[in-house]
Design goal:
two-stranded parallel ribbon, about 80 residues, mainly alpha, about 25% helix
């Protein structure tokens, strides 16, 4: 179920955070919310870059990173 909330998304206790990224963006999470995510959880940026550079990241696909410790998962 999708739940809309307000406030600091990075302080949310949800299992996953959804973040849209434009197709062809292989440098990943570099602005706005995406930049804040990559600063708080650098491994998310590294994992996304690794996936995007494989050439499998195309519009409409979903990349998922599982939750790890105090880091939520990402979709």
């Amino acid at each position: 179920m999708i739940v809309f909330v307000t406030g600091d998304l990075l302080a949310a206790q949800e299992s996953y955070i959804a973040q849209g990224v434009a197709e062809g963006n292989q440098e990943g999470l570099g602005t706005g919310l995406a930049l804040k995510i990559s600063k708080k959880w650098p491994n998310v940026q590294a994992a996304f870059k690794k996936y995007a550079r494989t050439g499998r990241f195309i519009g409409g696909h979903i990349w998922t990173l599982e939750p790890d410790g105090n880091q939520p998962g990402f979709r």
